[in-house]
Amino acid sequence: MSNNLTAARYRILRWPDVHQLIGLSRSQVHKLVARGQFPQPIKLGMRASGWLEADLLAWVEVRLKDRETACAEGSDHA
Question: Are residues 15 and 26 in contact, defined by beta-carbon separation less than 8 angstroms?
């Protein structure tokens, strides 16, 4: 495993970085977490939490695969 993948596996991102990566609002992320549709945050302290970068990248990867599948299905019907 490369050092970048190892670093991503254990790197914890706080909200500004999460927002920059995924582009969703904080309230939307919390709704998705509550529905089990977004990775759970990790509690870092009384008032601090973060997300594992690897979990977020995996979530984005699934969205990309879903898009590719939808595009392929759409082109089959054209």
Answer: yes
Distances in whole angstroms, Cα of residue 29 to Cα of each of 6, 9, 50, 59, 61: 25, 20, 12, 12, 17
- Residues forming beta bridges with residue 70, ordered by sequence position: none
Q: What is the pLDDT of residues 33-47, one digit of tens each?
A: 999 999 999 999 999
d(Cα 66, Cα 18) in Å, to the nearest integer?
Answer: 21
Q: Which amino acid is at 44?
A: L
Burial class of residue 12, CB neighbours in 10 A (0-12, 13-18, 19+): middle
pTM, entire model: 0.78
> Are 54 and 13 within 8 A, CB to CB?
no
Q: Is the pLDDT of residue 68 over 90?
A: no
For the chain, the straight-line distance linking the first and the last C-alpha, in angstroms and rounded, comes to 41
